[in-house]
């Protein structure tokens, strides 16, 4: 069986460390392709060149222009392949337009020691069946974007006021997440998850697209199968920019990924 | 008057986008040169090539090997110079050994709008005169490293238990910060500040060097003159790695910089 996510991040080698990708209109959000699926595509290209270090420990993506559905070119370069980690750069472009530059440190998550002293508070979410699917949005709100048709996202009812014009003002979104077609999570899918929810600025009543300038992801463990719990928050909206922190917890209660991004406040 | 920090990050052009640096033994911490002053050196090199966009909005540094006092080579490359921001990469090496790779988004902080809706809680610190200088460390603890002789750091007494073998276990350090020679803060100095305190793992009783794999800094505003309030914290120590978040607030109470790093737990 073939999953939508694997089709989306598929790559065709066209040279040494060069790949062709096809950015699908099924992953659009507005006119652009979702940044998370683009990060996963770049992360996939890097992993292809590092079979012994397949996992993005730290993945820094700097966004230069909005990607559009259609062909894209991905290039990678190993800067240094050390003992347990490798440092790599990658770039995605379309018709000569530079879209995203990545600098990443890769390794093998399965070789890390298994101590866990996480003191972060797990995402507090009501049971899945008490949460709100975007498909339950009242008629009259915006049409469900293609991206959200690939995802099964169930929001905490306490943070969906923005859909009704009554944002909480807290600057925090919480939701359960899985792929609609049942593909289980893995480190590459986590790169999607970290940028899959609506901008956290929705919860501040600032609707509209919030272009990401930079997002750095830390993937800390291979996620267990099942639902993921996702929380995004912001605490420093200033100068037309805001930071958005994201945590992803797996079904065993492990904090498997963290990210922080810098994005532009919607106009 | 010449300041120690400016001497430390001084660069001699040796070619187009190529600079020679001299890493000083006055900035050592253990056998290595402090990562913060190295980031500031790289940040300085990038700024030299971007006179209209001198500020590091987002600065991602991936560390490959520990830098030593002595000569270093810095190269920069502008990937894309767009309307209001530019995307740039840079690398620092010593005798052919790759030390640090950087991917950064630069712009002009003075051109950002002046809205501030920060909801983060300012660092809670007792007055400077009630805080604890590292120079007040009891005899018998480790000798003050060269780095700390450049800095005037005053720790909240509530989080210096580690110096007496009684760490709080909270995973948080708070301190006032300024340069000992009085140089006022600016965006480049903030890159130093974000990695200038001891590893936050000290507060968990894990003493020893915690090598940084990756650190991404967001500089959000030009800092006002005077003391900076710095807070570092960690909440996800697992798999031999931990994240360390840092906030820097200026003397006017503005959150001027944020960072998150991924580092290795001391053995």
Describe this entry's structure for a reader.
The structure is a homodimer of 267-residue chains. Chain A has 267 residues and is mostly beta strands. The first copy, chain A, has one domain: Beta Barrel (Porin), CATH 2.40.160.210. Chain A is built from four helices and 16 strands. In chain A, strands 1, 2, 5, 6, 7, 8, 9, 10, 11, 12, 13, 14, 15 and 16 form a 14-stranded antiparallel β-sheet that branches. Chain A has a two-stranded antiparallel sheet with strand order 3-4. In chain A, strand 3 and strand 4 (32-33) form a beta hairpin. In chain A, helix 2 (35-48) packs antiparallel against helix 4. The longest helix of chain A has 14 residues, at 35-48. At the A-B interface, strand 5, strand 7, strand 8, strand 12 and strand 14 of A face strand 5, strand 7, strand 8, strand 12 and strand 14 of B.
Strand runs of chain A, count? 16
| Main beta-sheet annotation of chain A | 14 strands, antiparallel
Structural domains of chain A: how many:
1
Q: Segments of chain A where pLDDT lies below 50 for 5+ residues?
A: none
Question: Largest interface: which pair?
Answer: A-B, 52 and 52 residues
The first-level CATH class of chain A is given as Mainly Beta
SS summary, helix count of chain A: 4
Q: Determine the structural class of chain A based on helices, strands and strand pairing.
A: mainly beta
- Any idea what the radius of gyration of chain A is? 18 Å
The coarse overall form of chain A would be globular
Give me the secondary-structure topology.
The structure is a homodimer of 267-residue chains.
Chain A: H1 4-8, E1 12-15, E2 18-23, E3 28-29, E4 32-33, H2 35-48, E5 55-63, E6 70-81, E7 86-94, E8 97-107, E9 132-133, H3 146-150, E10 151-155, E11 172-179, H4 187-193, E12 212-219, E13 228-233, E14 237-238, E15 241-249, E16 255-264
Antiparallel strand pairs in A: 1-2, 2-6, 3-4, 5-8, 5-12, 6-7, 7-8, 9-10, 10-11, 11-13, 12-16, 13-15, 14-15, 15-16
């Amino acid at each position: 069986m073939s999953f939508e996510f694997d089709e989306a991040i598929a790559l065709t080698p066209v040279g040494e460390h060069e790949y062709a990708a096809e950015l699908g209109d099924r992953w659009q959000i507005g006119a652009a392709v979702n940044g998370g699926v683009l990060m996963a595509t770049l992360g996939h290209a890097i992993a292809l060149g590092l079979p012994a270090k397949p996992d993005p420990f730290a993945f820094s993506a700097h966004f230069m222009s909005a990607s559009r559905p259609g062909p894209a070119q991905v290039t990678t370069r190993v800067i240094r392949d050390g003992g347990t980690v490798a440092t790599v750069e990658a770039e995605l472009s379309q018709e000569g337009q530079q879209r995203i530059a990545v600098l990443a440190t890769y390794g093998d998550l399965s070789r890390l020691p298994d101590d866990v002293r996480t003191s972060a508070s797990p995402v507090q979410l009501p049971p899945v069946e008490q949460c709100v699917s975007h498909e339950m949005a009242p008629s009259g709100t915006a049409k469900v974007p293609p991206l959200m048709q690939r995802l099964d996202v169930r929001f905490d009812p306490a943070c969906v006021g923005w859909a009704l014009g009554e944002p909480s003002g807290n600057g925090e979104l919480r939701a359960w997440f899985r792929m609609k077609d049942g593909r289980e999570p893995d480190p590459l899918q986590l790169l999607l998850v970290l940028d899959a929810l609506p901008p956290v600025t929705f919860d501040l009543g600032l609707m509209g697209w919030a272009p990401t300038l930079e997002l750095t992801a830390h993937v800390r463990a291979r996620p267990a199968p099942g639902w993921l719990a996702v929380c995004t928050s912001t605490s420093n909206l200033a100068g037309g920019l805001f930071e958005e922190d994201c945590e992803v917890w797996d079904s065993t209660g492990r904090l498997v990924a963290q990210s922080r991004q810098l994005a532009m406040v919607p106009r």
